[in-house]
Amino acid sequence: MHALDPVPDPVVRDWDFPRSPISALLLTRFAAEHHVAAEIVLQGTGLTEPELEDPSLSVDAHQELRIVRNLATALPDIPDLGMRAGLQYHLTSYGILGFAFISSATVSDGMAVALRYLELSFAFCIPRIRLAEGELRVELDASAIPADVRDFLVARDLSAIHTIFVELISSPIPVQRIELNLPEPPDGVQAPVFFGTVPEFGAAKNVIVLDPEFLTQPLPQANEHTLAMCEAQCRDLLAGRRERTGFAKQVRDQMLGPDGVRLGMEDVARKLHTTARTLYRRLNAEGTSFQTVRDEVRAALAEGMLRDGALSVDDIAIRLGYAEAASFIHAFKRWTGTTPMSYARRRQN
Q1: Do 139 and 206 contact (CB within 8 A), yes or no?
Q2: In whole angstroms, what separates CA 128 from the centre of its chain?
Q3: Which of 26, 33, 46, 82 is the most buried (most CB within 10 A)?
Q4: Considering only CA atoms, which of 1, 56, 3, 50 is closest in space to residue 28?
Q5: Tell me, what DSSP letter sits at residue 141?
Q6: Please, are residues 90 and 163 in contact by the beta-carbon 8 Å criterion?
Q7: What is the dihedral of CA 195, 198, 199, 201, to 10 degrees?
Q8: Residues near 344 by Cβ (< 8 Å), separated by ≥ 6?
Q9: Which residue, 211, 164, 158, is CA-closest to 182?
Q10: What is the Cα–Cα distance from 298 to 293, expressed in whole angstroms?
């Protein structure tokens, strides 16, 4: 990625994706530090603290939301509860995604990796990064978060970002200002400081504004080979989490049939003896969409064909239903962070 190229948007559109149990475990231990028993903070989730110790466990985002609600109910007198909770989220908490970030060449590359595999994080706010008018704007989009836990999760996610960068980069972070759609701290409570800056409260959006040159800053532990290995593991882990069940699996199975990726929503609905409107509604109820499932199928098929090496990029684009190779190349780079040719060369090596 060129130094000042825009960082791509995250692949996911909202927070409703399965997660590792680490975040739930961190919140449970944070509650224990404040004398709140695990049974209270996990009430209504169907989870137990010993289960959270199992790294193979998958936690539904709604279960984590329930933990947040229980925590906020149990500790109503701590106004900066979310910001304190975010301090628990160290780089090592993110597992292989954290190592991929650390191994990236620059801050820009690290951000691109983090957004590409955002489903391996614990974020509820969706980061959107823009370069405009000499500013690097990192917006934490919280519009889809339920209102009763929105302030907690905005504060927690911002605090977690702060924790990560402080651990990663020893030099000062060039933050120009921070705008938060949060109320002012109550009288007697000291305003939090992030990156040496006191946020402006009551803003329209949640935005961190930085010097754009921050994107070019090298990361101290950059390693190309480690990054390639970590990204491969991220893709495998993400594929396992995205393995579809229920109605989404039926849609996926139709797309894996002959010329399936060329089918539109109405075509798939007809094959499943339903309507496009019902298909949309049922996929939405399972936390996904027709386009998301089709992208997953296309990505898996593309990687398989590139590994085989028998087809050109143009041929693969046609087989996947793209009108031109450029559209396929752009989509593949969004899925994997690299071009089809670079991916093929890496696999061959």
Answers
A1: yes
A2: 11
A3: 82
A4: 50
A5: E
A6: yes
A7: 160
A8: 306, 307, 309
A9: 158
A10: 9
Q: Which two tokens stand for residue 290?
A: 């027709």
Tell me if 160 sits within 8 A of 30, measured CB to CB: no
Q: Identify how many contiguous H helices and E strands the chain contains and give both numbers.
A: 16, 5
64-93 residue pLDDT tens: 999 999 999 999 999 899 999 999 999 999
Q: Which two tokens stand for residue 22?
A: 């680490």
Tell me the backbone φ, ψ of residue 221, rounded to 5 degrees: -110, 30
Tell me the pairing of strands 135-141 and 175-180: unpaired
CB 248 within 8 A of CB 25: no
pLDDT digits (tens, 9 = 90+) for 317-337: 998 989 899 999 999 888 877
The answer to whether the CB of 120 falls within 8 A of the CB of 230 is: no
Section 192-197 average pLDDT: 90
Query: What pTM does this model have?
Result: 0.72
**Secondary-structure breakdown of the chain: helix, strand, coil percentages, each rounded to the nearest 5:** 55, 10, 35
